[in-house]
Specification:
- The complex is a heterodimer of chains A (157) and B (276).
- Chain A has seven helices and no strands.
- Chain A is mainly α and 157 residues long.
- Chain B has 276 residues and is an alpha+beta fold.
- The radius of gyration of chain B is 22 Å and the shape is globular.
- The N and C termini of chain B lie far apart (65 Å).
- The chains are: A mainly alpha (157), B alpha+beta (276).
- Chains A and B meet through helix 1, helix 2, helix 4, helix 5 and helix 6 of A and helix 1, helix 2, helix 3 and strand 5 of B.
Chain lengths: 157, 276
């Protein structure tokens, strides 16, 4: 029981820190060639520890914060993050354990899919292929790297 | 997965859809509430970090400028005194300072967004900013304020899909509507200009003052090329914008005067090198 509480606290702290850094460091990340999506990283990592319903709740809250930062397309990030969190949580039943290779691939695929769907829904014209095949994978790689470094914090007991 | 999980998913999805379909004013109010409470410390830090980065980059340039400015100071002291006397005489000081509020602009991007469409300003109601206030930079039109809280405002760049502005040529003879073309590089399109007149590439476009939001005379961009003619009654042009969202950080928000003002002279004076 105490171990579970400690694990939840570690997870909550990780999500809070990643969320804080996501918004605070956004101007810095935007000037980089590949920018990690720390908010999505928080959603994906928490989804591996939570039941699908709870993960969707985390996705809802963090998505609402993301939407609050941009006036346009309000609610889009909330909707996408709820879906991502729920689907990501389902992977617990397919893949057991948190091997570094699996977690890296999981974060990479999750971020890539999220950014691609978000890009397509936003309806930006031009440069679609370069975004999907270059920009989004680079962002996904950066997110995977950050998530990999964050895992020890989540596992802290 | 328990039976409760799909129900929770349905609830959160429903709530997200409700958020998306709320009236725009409600969405803005929700976003403003989140920014002024949960996100306030983060925005404060973001603003500080941005300032630190900007200051660090400017230190070298400022040192060089300081040396040359020190030499000029002696010469300018007399001019400065004369300037102050004349401004007080003509009451320009009051008019010039209350018309605009200087602000730092922070683009508000989201995943998958190549071209920035929205921004946050570090001025709010306390500085006189209001919804629908035009936002301008030295080179011209940046966008418009959409929502205001006490110390903060959120707005849309001209790149936003919903953004429209009535435009005219410098001589005030040709009018049309400017909208963003979307995508990158960021370009505009001028629609609805008369078929009888063909605008030459390089023609400057300004806000016309029509529409009740933007005052007359703010530079918007320059004509690049003719893109289409509509059934022999109107022409459309590709427009090179005066301001690119990625390149602007310091802006001015119009706090009074509103859409009825004519600000043409501000940019005329800037172009001729006079102080604004």
């Amino acid at each position: 029981m105490a171990e579970q509480t400690s694990s939840r606290l570690g997870l909550a702290a990780s999500v809070a820190v990643l969320t804080f850094l996501h918004f605070a460091l956004r101007p810095l990340f935007e000037s980089w060639f590949a920018s990690p999506n720390l908010l999505l990283c928080a959603v994906l990592i928490s989804a591996r520890q939570l039941r699908p319903g709870a993960a969707a709740g985390v996705g809802f809250v963090l998505g609402l914060l993301e939407d609050a930062m941009a006036v346009s397309f309000f609610g889009l990030a909330t909707l996408l993050l709820v879906l991502v969190a729920f689907i990501a949580s389902q992977t617990r039943e397919l893949f057991v354990g948190e091997e570094p290779l699996f977690m890296g691939t999981y974060l990479f695929v999750g971020t890539w899919l999220y950014e691609t769907v978000s890009y397509l829904v936003l309806g930006a014209s031009g440069g679609t292929l370069s975004f999907i095949l270059l920009r989004a994978p680079l962002d996904a790689l950066a997110t995977g790297a950050v998530g990999y470094l964050t895992l020890p914090l989540v596992r802290a007991r | 997965m328990t039976r409760r999980d799909p129900l929770l998913l349905a609830f959160f999805l429903f709530a997200a859809v409700v958020l998306m379909t709320l009236p725009h004013e409600r969405q803005l109010a929700l976003a403003a509430a989140a920014r002024s409470t949960v996100l306030a410390p983060v925005l404060q830090l973001q603003s500080s970090l941005s300032d630190v980065r900007s200051l660090r980059g400017n230190v070298q340039a400022l040192r060089a400028e300081r040396d040359s400015l020190a030499a000029e100071l002696h010469t300018l002291q007399g001019v400065e005194e004369e300037n102050q006397r004349l401004r007080a005489l003509l009451d320009l000081a009051e008019r010039g300072q209350t018309r605009f509020a200087a602000a730092n602009l922070y683009p508000a991007g989201r995943a998958g967004e190549v071209v920035k469409r929205s921004f946050i300003l570090d001025v709010g109601e306390a500085s006189g900013a209001r919804a629908d206030a035009p936002v301008v930079a030295r080179d011209g039109l940046v966008g418009v304020v959409r929502a205001v809280s006490l110390g903060q405002a959120a707005g849309d760049f001209w790149t936003h899909p919903d953004f429209r502005v009535s435009a005219m040529t410098g001589d005030g003879r040709v009018f049309g509507i400017i909208r963003s073309l979307g995508g990158a590089p960021s370009l505009m399109q001028l629609d609805g200009t008369p078929y009888q007149v063909e605008l030459a590439p390089g023609t400057e476009l300004f806000t016309s003052g029509q529409g009740g939001v933007f005052p007359r005379g703010i530079p918007i961009g320059r004509i690049l090329e003719l893109t289409s003619t509509e059934a022999g009654w109107a022409r459309s042009y590709l427009v090179q914008p005066a301001v690119h969202p990625d390149a602007v950080r310091e802006v001015m928000v119009m706090v009074d005067g509103g859409a009825t003002a004519d600000v043409t002279d501000l940019w005329d004076r800037a172009a001729s090198g006079s102080p604004r």
